[in-house]
Amino acid sequence: MQARAYSMPPTTPVQQLGDLTGRHQARRRLLSLMATGLAAVHGAGAVRDALAGERMPRSPWLCAIGKAAQSMALGACETLSEPPAGALLITKRAHADPVRLGAHGIVTLIGGHPLPDAGSLKAGQTLITTIARLPADAQLLFLISGGASSLVEVPTQGIGLAQLRRMNHWLLASGLPIGDMNLVRKSLSRIKAGGLLDVIAGRSVRALAISDVPGDATAVIGSGLLVPEPALAERVSRLELPGWLAQWVARGLRERGTQPPTTGPDIALVATLSKAKAAIVAQARRSALAVWEHPDFIEGDAAVRGAALAHTLIEGAPSLHVWGGETTVRLPDAPGRGGRNQHLALAAAIALAGREDCLLLSVGTDGTDGPTEDAGALVDGGTLARAALAGLDAHRHLRRADSAAFLEASGDLIRTGPTGTNVMDLILGLKIAPGAPG
């Protein structure tokens, strides 16, 4: 991937006053390093590397689910010694080219994300019907990436689309970590938490996954379509849920019964956040940049963490900082437009205001941030001044969770389009030495 694929802010009068050298070059450097990290975890290459040298006993039936489904499926088709015996791909709108996939015999279905929709329910029914019709000796190749929790669903009895959307609306605004959100989703699903294994019914399965969850827990990726969770009832009971949702969860758990599957196939992780960070660090060091690779997982309130990361830059020596993780945003009533990366970046921009030496980039590695089409943002000490030309107040936009409108005015949004991967969020901070060109 090339850095030119990413948007740069427009030249403004503020920029003309003196940052067309150091700050502008530093922005380009951060975008280039971001592209390096994304390329290291691209789905096609990750699957090719995982399957290289393998000879599957026969042409497998292929199923790719998630935001990175297309890149993973194409990587498999390029590597398998024989074309798939059949293939089903389920992904997000604008994340697939049905004509290109159709040339490989891949049927494409579109589900909803971040909220499930009618397409998600259609995809779920098609998935279980198709698997049930496969021969008993069929070999299945599953390629799973983030987003599968919303993109494909077969809900428990009595739960329809309206209930699913209400549940997911509440979860997305709750501030709960992804693992806890997926416990609730599993409780209302016939295919999550290993429920799909009942349909697979002992057929041979090979599974590869791109991790978009803390700790790379395969039970959390896609809500564990192939990973049983025998302690589900106990774990979800510890969560504080509104009464209406607790009742739905109890109903769903009763339907799941007391004898869920206990074992599933091994799932190989082919791309992770750690791999993306390592690629960025290696590239930066080849460019003679001083680098801090932070092992701590960035989580919790996005605004709080954004301000804290900005202060780390301000107080530290000139260098590149590489973080990764997934923060949360507790939405106000009638929120504006934005996502957790834009929220974090705006909080950082407030802390960095007026500084000529510090920049911070925060992006969702799948190319989308929340319900927006932007991946995130790249802010610097001039962000607030640029948006002030449009009469915007950063604190007001942060309170309203309306970061996208502010960062659009400042010219700091990053738009990549679908990236072919999904390993949570990358955060890069750069402090420039005095007089350095960036």
Identify the notable features of this structure and list them briefly:
about 450 residues; alpha/beta; six-stranded mixed sheet; about 40% helix; globular
Concise overview:
This protein has helices at residues 13-16, 22-40, 43-51, 69-79, 98-102, 118-132, 148-151, 161-174, 178-187, 196-200, 232-236, 243-256, 273-286, 302-315, 340-352, 383-388, 394-399, 403-410, and strands spanning 61-65, 86-92, 106-111, 139-144, 204-210, 267-271, 291-298, 319-325, 358-364, 376-380, 413-414, 425-431.
Low-confidence stretches: 1-20
- Number of beta strands: 12
Indicate the percent of residues in helices: 40-55%
- Outline, from the CA principal axes? globular
So what's the oligomer here? single chain
Q: What separation lies between the terminal Cα atoms?
A: 21 Å
Strand content: 15-25%
Question: Mind summarizing the main beta sheet?
Answer: 6 strands, parallel
Strands of the widest sheet, in order across it, are: 3-2-1-4-5-6
Mean pLDDT rating? 91
Order of helices and strands: HHHEHEHEHEHHHHEHHEHEHEHEEHHHEE
Separate helix tally: 18
Q: What would you report as the Rg, rounded to the nearest angstrom?
A: 22 Å
Structure write-up:
The protein is an alpha/beta fold and 438 residues long. It is 40% helix and 16% strand. The chain contains 18 helices and 12 strands. The chain has helices at residues 13-16, 22-40, 43-51, 69-79, 98-102, 118-132, 148-151, 161-174, 178-187, 196-200, 232-236, 243-256, 273-286, 302-315, 340-352, 383-388, 394-399, 403-410, and strands spanning 61-65, 86-92, 106-111, 139-144, 204-210, 267-271, 291-298, 319-325, 358-364, 376-380, 413-414, 425-431. A 6-stranded parallel β-sheet has the order 3-2-1-4-5-6, sandwiched between helices. Strand 7, helix 14 (302-315) and strand 8 form a beta-alpha-beta unit. The longest helix has 19 residues, at 22-40. The model is unreliable at 1-20 (pLDDT under 50).
